[in-house]
Write a structure and sequence with these properties.
Elements (H helix, E strand, L loop, with lengths): L6 E5 L7 E6 L5 E5 L6 E7 L7 E7 L7 E3 L5 E4 L3 E5 L7 E4 L6 E4 L5 E5 L6 E5 L7 E4 L8 E4 L5 E5 L2 E5 L7 E2 L8 E4 L5 E5 L1 E5 L7 E2 L13 E3 L5 E8 L5 E7 L6 E4 L13 E4 L5 E9 L3 E6 L6 E4 L6 E4 L4 E2 L10 E8 L3 E8 L5 E10 L2 E8 L6 E9 L5 E9 L2
Antiparallel strand pairs: 1-28, 2-3, 3-4, 4-5, 6-7, 7-8, 8-9, 10-11, 11-12, 12-13, 14-15, 15-16, 16-17, 18-19, 19-20, 20-21, 22-23, 23-24, 24-25, 25-29, 26-27, 27-28, 29-30, 31-32, 32-35, 33-34, 33-36, 36-37
């Protein structure tokens, strides 16, 4: 049984293949697509107890291995092989194949009928689409040299590919593509709605205009490796695989934001265990249930960690004086409302126990401009009114300190527009 909070370790004793893809469809059911081992063995694995045990669903002998894997619902999943698409419609009990007239490097199923594939080879490669579940494929475009390596679609018209290590977008289902100068390539990408999306490649980038512009998210700068996969619960709560904390041994970390990227923090899932590599795959099905996995077997069996409580305490990295803050889940600072605001806004926070709370307001330079409140509060949620009529328009930060920050401190951003 898992401990009452935090992360706990999960092992895989029967398979040492590298992991190429990790997907969970609910709190108990998950799937892994493996790479080929030295003997050419590849597997699709399944768990029905949240990752505690894994068993074989499908075996393939092929040096290419299984690659991209996506499930569009709890029953229907797709796994990319060498030149075949493996499809299940009953949660992996049975699989059938559809031939692809290419050797795709990536695929994305929009639904059971519409699936996109990309092949980076110069002659036979390009961008492929099927609208009949893989029975027939159409090559919509071949770029010659620089054919795409990755693909993602939000809906039937709007999608993205990576070619020449740069992001390109289509708005007509893949017939035409244009470059995104601020995009760069992606290892993983997901959209919350038609406008808000996140992607990873070394850094994490966010878009709020459907992918036309991307901005780099400010992450903790104390790690030597980069973000790889991303798991978005909603527009505010996003998880990503992080780097490796090396100041006290090598420990894998994960990144998290709960306010849409205004602040990013990190968690160290196994504080009492040495882990020499970063987690490569992360998957959350809701705010509580999530997994972070290595892509290879560490010490022969160790593969990853699992949480049923939303993880451990989060260290929050803020842009005010580049402070590092410890977030204790007993307290919480909410986003002000309205935001942006004109002169008047409300700041809400939660106290688990009675105690002394202070909220300070800072300008964009980090200078404190106001002490919003400083007194003892009882347990529960509290709202403080902030009148900024004497302050100029601009970006400000507000920080909650419990017992002068010894127990808790967190910072959020607010925007004053007059």
């Amino acid at each position: 049984m898992p401990p009452p909070s935090g992360w706990y370790q999960q092992n895989m004793t029967n398979w040492l293949n590298n992991i190429n893809s990790l997907v969970f469809t609910d709190s108990l059911t998950g799937y892994i697509a493996t790479a080929s081992d030295q003997a050419g063995h590849n597997y699709i694995l399944k768990t029905t107890n949240g990752g505690e045990n894994w068993f074989e669903l499908l075996y393939q002998y092929n040096i290419a291995g299984f690659r991209s894997m996506k499930f569009i619902n709890k029953d229907t999943g797709f796994v990319l092989g060498l030149d075949y698409l493996y499809i299940t419609k009953n949660a992996g009990v049975n699989w059938y194949t559809k031939y692809i007239p290419a050797i795709p490097s990536d695929m994305y199923p929009l639904n059971v009928d519409t699936i996109f594939c990309v092949d980076e080879q110069s002659i036979i490669g390009g961008f492929y689409r099927t609208t009949d579940g893989g029975t027939s494929w159409t090559k919509l475009i071949n770029f010659g040299s620089g054919n795409p390596t990755r693909v993602y679609f939000y809906d039937k018209n709007n999608g993205f590919i990576v070619r020449w290590n740069e992001l390109h977008k289509t708005t007509n289902g893949g017939y035409n593509w244009f470059g995104i100068p601020t995009g760069g390539r992606f290892d993983d990408i997901c959209f919350i709605d038609s406008l808000i999306g996140y992607k990873t490649y070394v850094s994490i980038k966010k878009t709020t205009d459907g992918g036309l512009n991307w901005t780099v998210q400010q992450l903790p700068q104390t790690f030597g490796t980069s973000a790889t996969t991303i798991s978005a619960i909603n527009k505010d709560t996003v998880w990503s695989t992080g780097g490796v904390l090396s100041s006290n041994g090598y420990k894998g970390i994960v990144y998290i934001t709960t306010n849409g990227g205004e602040n990013w923090g990190f968690q160290i899932p196994l504080v009492n265990s040495t882990n020499s590599s970063q987690y490569k795959y992360i998957y959350f099905i809701n705010s509580k249930n999530g997994w972070a996995y290595l892509n290879y077997a560490y010490l022969d069996t160790i593969r990853g960690v699992h949480t049923t409580t939303g993880g451990s305490d989060t260290t929050i990295y803020t842009s005010v004086n580049n402070n590092i803050s410890i977030l204790n889940r007993n307290y919480e600072l909410f986003q002000n409302y309205p935001n942006p605001f004109n002169s008047i806004t409300n700041v809400k926070f939660k106290m688990l126990n009675s105690g002394f709370a202070k909220i300070k307001i800072y300008d964009i330079t980090g200078k404190m401009v106001r002490v919003l409140t400083s007194k003892k509060y009882e347990a529960g949620e509290h709202i403080v009114r902030f009148d900024a009529s004497e302050l100029p328009s601009g970006v400000y930060f507000y920080r909650l300190l419990i017992d002068e920050g010894r127990e808790y401190r967190e910072t959020r951003k607010l925007i004053l527009i007059k």
